[in-house]
Amino acid sequence: MDRREGKVFSLAERPEMLGPVLDMPDSWPEFTTQDPVGNAHYGRIPVELPEYVLFAQDERGEVLAHAYSVPFALHAEGRGELPARGWDQVLVWAFADLRRGVRPDTVSAVSIVVAPRVQGLGLSGRMLTAMRDNARARGFTEVVAPVRPNAKHREPRTPIEEYAHRVREDGLPYDPWLRVHARAGATIDRVAPASMTVAASLAEWRRWTGLPFDTRGDVEVPGALVPVRCEPERDHAVYVEPNVWMRHPL
Question: Please, what is the angle between helix 176-183 and helix 123-137, to 10°?
Fold first, then answer.
């Protein structure tokens, strides 16, 4: 990165920056932060795997973006394929491997977050490049990513398989975030139909979204990639988010 856009470090190099990295503003819809698997594991990454947490810092020391990834054993017995449960499953695998001392063979992207005030300046692509470079420097030959297509929320009822494989005239993916990955050299492997699951009471969904959640059926929620299934008779609604697995050879 040039001086204007900041320098990239890992938390292993700069452990004193843990607080500023955690405190960096983001623009996630609130419901997306309520996945129990994510809540159980995401916060462990900067503490237990700081060498896989990268951040960009400007000249004033402000954190502009961060990128989380995790190493895991994709080719361990019983695995081999990128999981249908996507983001959730790779977090479970990574920390199970860490606990058991299993040697990882692959790095998975977990998130790339850019502070709202500097979004649209190309920082997400730069952080993706830094993540790839970090994995390569650690001896890995592949990065995989359960990508959350960032324009899918505009058409929540379009099947994810159809959306993921839609391309522009130049052959690149229609979706902007899938396109960033493709330009970095990634190809689509498969869809992860249940990458993240958020199940909660209707009161919680009302608080997160401001919507009434009082009618049985599919509810379109701003920021959601697919509709949320509402069941008033059970006082429950469930969001099952699909992602798109992309593979980056290094």
Answer: 40
Sequence spans of domains, the chain:
3-195+243-249
DSSP SS3 for 68: strand
- For 121-172, the pLDDT digits (tens) are 999 999 999 999 999 999 999 999 999 999 999 999 999 999 999 999 999 9
- Name the architecture of domain 3-195+243-249: 3-Layer(aba) Sandwich (3.40)
Structure tokens at 144: 């995989």
> Length of the chain, please?
250
- The strand pair at 236-249 and 187-200 is best described as antiparallel
Cβ pair 80, 93 in contact under 8 A: no
Secondary structure letter of residue 127 according to DSSP: H
How many CB atoms within 10 Å of residue 129?
A: 15
Q: Encoding tokens for residue 215?
A: 């009618």
How many whole angstroms separate alpha carbon 149 and alpha carbon 162?
12
pLDDT tens digit string along 23-40?
Answer: 999 999 999 999 999 999
